[in-house]
Design goal:
Layout (H helix, E strand, L loop, with lengths): L3 E4 L1 H9 L20 H19 E2 L9 H24 L5 H14 L1 E2 L2 H28 L17 H17 L5 H15 L4 H18 L1 H22 L2 H14 L8 H19 L1 H6 L13 H9 L1 H22 L2 H16 L8 H10 L12 E4 L1
Parallel strand pairs: 1-4
Antiparallel strand pairs: 2-3
Helix pairs in contact: 1-2, 1-5, 3-4, 3-14, 4-16, 5-6, 5-7, 6-7, 6-8, 6-15, 8-9, 8-15, 13-14, 14-15, 14-16
Protein name: O-antigen polymerase
Keywords: Membrane, Transmembrane, Transmembrane helix
Length: 390
């Protein structure tokens, strides 16, 4: 069998964008006091994305004719930029969070992969490798008491537990649905599942359970029910010993909230309910303004929901256009690639945007760009025919 070899430039390209926030360990970062690393991080983002462009894309393709989908997405993203700059200047509230989306998504609008058929999946292989190494680094950091966050959350090199947990779940989905069965595949599944658990991110853990549930359901429904019930029983009987304290607190807060108790528990859980109440209040009080301009007197609205962040910042009209495009392109990825993996990726993005402003965190926009661009070509990918070379 002829083996298709792929250069190690792809692992290096993903390593750069996934490792920026390790700089915090050398800058005296404090969860309570924050950090003055804004400018260094910004410069590192630009450099890492520039390196990613040179290693992953054919930069000469910027002069070539683009696909219609690239033009449409480019117009919507730039529409958001012009709107935000104008609004920020008018209100005197500059904000760079939208820059993370621009920096990571624009290359997919302007450029083409060097080899569409292979490199999307080789990049996913590289992402799994980098994330696995970062989980091992986080274990070392945890054991030696060097964690940046008070709850000792695993954050990899992306600086945020929710973002790292989401990327870990994308890797877990890839291992479950694409990788050939092998011993090292199962080792990686266990390692990444462990990493997800120790992000102490409730949504990440729920996504992990969703990943396994969907995977086993497609294999054997009866077995899935048995495994699920057994897992729930084991979880409830041993969670005091197995789960990190912060994660136990989050789950207990969620249960309290579901039972109607909003006065106690995790503030981050109850806040996610409050921001949706705020949305309905705004849409009732200033309907036209919310539809076309977002929330009043706010240039960039920060909320634990990507949907509400963009509605509050850009207005309902722009947000509907943006998310409709993104989800349509993700759907095309499902159809073109004929793999349940992309269905799971689609589900995770849709759900994650309800509870996290994911695209404000670098490099989630790159993962999104990778996902939507995978549907811009017919895939004939076979993982068993790909290896790495120097």
């Amino acid at each position: 069998m002829k083996i298709k070899k792929v250069s190690l430039r792809l692992p290096f390209s993903i390593l750069g964008v996934m490792s920026l926030y390790y700089i915090f360990y050398f800058l005296g970062f404090s969860e309570k006091e924050g950090s003055d690393a804004g400018l260094p991080i910004l410069l590192l983002k630009i450099v890492s994305v520039a390196a990613f462009i040179l290693l992953y894309f054919d930069w000469r393709s910027i002069f070539q004719k683009k696909r219609a989908v690239q033009y449409i997405l480019l117009i919507v993203v730039l529409w958001g930029l012009i709107f935000l700059v104008t609004k920020s200047l008018y209100l005197g509230q500059p904000d760079l969070k939208y820059f993370n989306l621009l920096l990571t998504l624009l290359p997919f609008c302007l450029l083409a992969n060097r080899n569409q058929e292979v490199e999307v999946y080789t990049l996913l292989n590289s992402l799994v490798f980098v994330v696995s190494i970062q989980i091992l680094i986080d274990i070392y950091i945890f054991i030696n008491g060097f964690s940046l966050w008070e709850n000792n959350a695993f954050i990899g090199g992306v600086g945020n537990a929710n973002a790292f947990g989401f990327i870990c779940n994308i890797c877990l989905s890839y291992l479950l649905y694409y990788k050939q069965k092998s011993f090292h595949r199962y080792v990686l599944i266990v390692l990444i599942s462990f990493g997800i658990l120790f992000t102490v991110s409730m949504m990440s853990v729920l996504f992990m359970l969703l990943n396994f549930t969907l995977y086993f359901t497609r294999k054997n429904l009866l077995l899935t029910i048995i495994v699920l019930l057994t897992s729930i029983a084991v979880l409830f009987s041993t969670y005091e010993l197995l789960l990190p304290e912060h994660l136990k607190f989050k789950f207990e807060s969620l249960l309290a909230l579901l039972s109607g108790d909003t006065a106690t528990g995790s503030r981050s859980v109850s806040l996610r309910v409050e921001i949706y109440n705020t949305f309905f209040e705004n849409i009732e009080r200033a309907t036209i303004h919310v539809i076309f301009f977002g929330y009043e007197n706010i240039a960039y609205y920060i909320a634990d929901s990507q949907y509400l962040t963009y509605i509050g910042s850009f207005g309902l009209l722009w947000s509907v256009c943006f998310f409709s495009l993104i989800f349509y392109y993700l759907y095309i990825s499902i159809v073109k690639n004929k793999s349940f993996f992309w269905t799971v990726v689609f589900i995770q993005f849709v759900l994650f945007f309800f509870v996290n402003r994911a695209l404000d965190y670098f490099p989630i926009g790159l993962i999104l760009g990778l996902a939507i661009s995978s549907g811009w070509h017919e895939s004939k990918y076979d993982d068993s025919k790909v290896s790495l070379k120097t």
